[in-house]
Amino acid sequence: MTTAPKLPPPAAGSETRPTVLQRRAASFGHAVRGVGAALRTEVHLWFHAATTAAVLGLGLYCGLVRWEWAAVALSVGAVWCAELLNTAIEAVVDLVSPEYHPLAGRAKDVAAGAVLVMALAALVVGVLVFGPYFF
Prior knowledge:
The chain has about 140 residues and is mostly helical. It has helices at about 20-40, 45-60, 65-95, 100-135.
């Protein structure tokens, strides 16, 4: 039977090392803080939040079945993910290129285009899922 190697004791007067669980919890906290920061500063995310609430309400009203909820959840999550990545890309581009540069503009445009493509795909999913309930 093998045992995991023991870590050396912390030096006198130093703090103990955080456990793996503590580091994971801290990472989760950073992620939540990032979403919160984006929600406070990005108007497009306010629109996505309102749309998400409307879609969830509509799903409850229509009584979606499990696969329909899965399609809706994946679509909503993908749009949020695309928007958050777009926000991060814009922040990094602004940091490294405070002056206008054509490549910086292209990077921001492409990132915004990714959000548009994902939002259109989510719209198609919405029509396919909710359409039969209304037409």
